[in-house]
Amino acid sequence: MTSTLNSRSQIALLRPPRERAPMSIHKRRVLESHSFVTSAAWGLFHSVHRSSSASSKRAHRRFRSDLDVDSPCEDGDDTYHDRPQFTLKSVRRSSLSRCRRMLRCTKEATGQKSSHHYYTDAEPKRWDINSLISSYLSFSHRTSYFLLFLLFSLVYYANILVFAFVYWGFSAYYPECVTSAGVEIGSGENSDLFGDSFVLSWTTFSTVGYGSVYPSTGANSDEALPRKCMIVGVIGSFEAFVGVLYAGFCTAVLFGKVIRSQSQAQVYFSDPLVIRYGKQELLSDKTSNNLDVESQDVELGETLTSIEESRVIGQNKNDVNITCPVLEFRLVNRLHDVEEGEIVEAQLDCVAIFDQSRIISTDSSFYSGECGINGLGTFTQSTNNGHTDNYPEAANASNGNDSNNQQPTAIFHSHNSKQNRAITKLTLESNEHPYFRRVWFGRHILDENSPLLSELARTKIKQNGGYWPAELNNHFSIRDNLHFRHVLVCFSGTSNANATSVYAQKVYDLIDVNVGYRFVPMNYHAETGELKTDSYLLNAISEQRGGGAEPFL
Description:
The protein is α+β, with helices and mostly antiparallel strands and 553 residues long. It folds into two domains: 2-89 and 264-543, Immunoglobulin-like; 143-263, Helix Hairpins (Orthogonal Bundle). The protein is built from eleven helices and 22 strands. Strands 10, 11, 12, 13, 14, 16 and 17 form a seven-stranded antiparallel sheet that branches. Helix 1 runs antiparallel to helix 2 (36-52) and helix 6 crosses helix 7 (193-205). The longest helix is centred in the middle third of the chain and has 34 residues, at 230-263. It is elongated, with a radius of gyration of 32 Å. The protein starts with a strand and ends in a 10-residue tail after the last strand. Its main location: membrane.
């Protein structure tokens, strides 16, 4: 099943029952293999890998046992894999091909106005070499290593061919100026004029100089050479100079790309956003004293309210003091099973982007924004200071936001829409983590201070004493009261492997929101007793406790 909005598509895939529980990647490959040969091969590899690395795993587990604070039971009664699970994937469709996008970037770099949204203070030069180099460097940082090496090779051979044609044209009129195997170029029995010119070009450009083809000089010629033969030496010296510069330029670009790759955080963000709501789903967040990152159902012998007690959420007249819904996303550390793969001093910053018409100004002050736009809207965002997050992945995470702070809403001009957009900061329950290793949840409470809700919903929550209204406690009302364009999540921290600052970001759209679902647990215990994380389940979701999930389109 798919759903589409603003060139964004979300694909929902029903997970097979045998693949719902967390497992090792080798065991998952065995289940996913449809061929008898590949399934047997992966099974054999899994058995050999498990037996050969058992001792090293035990030593590695003892080394990191003091750091593991994950709960042995992630979801209480292990009923999460009995419920239907879905894997959600986000796909962005583009109407521009790669060549057209590169052409548009080149036009913008050279000063050509490709759209009416392009602004400049002064008319730039048509061919600005600085802009071209900056555009190329930006492209090299964003592209893959394979495409970068391919581009290096194309430019390398293009330079060689250009100089080869120059040598070929000059040697056609003055063959005595170039010597090939001791004779004039092209005069040998099996010699080819262009082939010899190409050899002279690439040996000069790469500064290899085998000596088979070289410019003629007076010392190796019986007759006096014309003065025009000096042109070959000038061309060759200039080509060697270009070759040295090109080699250094490629080295610098590759070095910069490697440094930038190290600055990218090795984390995966979940594609879907989920909204959990209702007393039965959120009751464990208030009653559990040691809730782990996967929001387990039962902890320390405390039993949740029976699901059959109120199957239809919001229809029970006794549903008072309903906790506000929670919007969630999660991210996983790719190096969770690697020694020193942790990210220290990790931080999450989340902002929402929405239409300017959705802003309800709560401040009488105004300022002059970009492009002559005036206006300032503010939201008072508060957090539950009395609530303590005892999640294993966020046990020591602190709330870096003050409940009394007011987050200003900045107005900016969107390049793909005629309507102005606004941006405001979202408050997360725990936006800092001192030692991020496995799974981390980002949670934003949809209360009266949340800018993601409509004005009507915030007013009703405030009138209800800060609790969620019962008439809005269904997926239809929650979906209708969500008003935002994008949610931008920025992750930053310091890699424990190379002590460099790392960062990552993820953009969510309204199409990525799924109301009434919860994430499937990712942590599990291997046969050796070691705590592992199944990254394959990052985008896996299941219906929340008590039901009430919206259907997929």
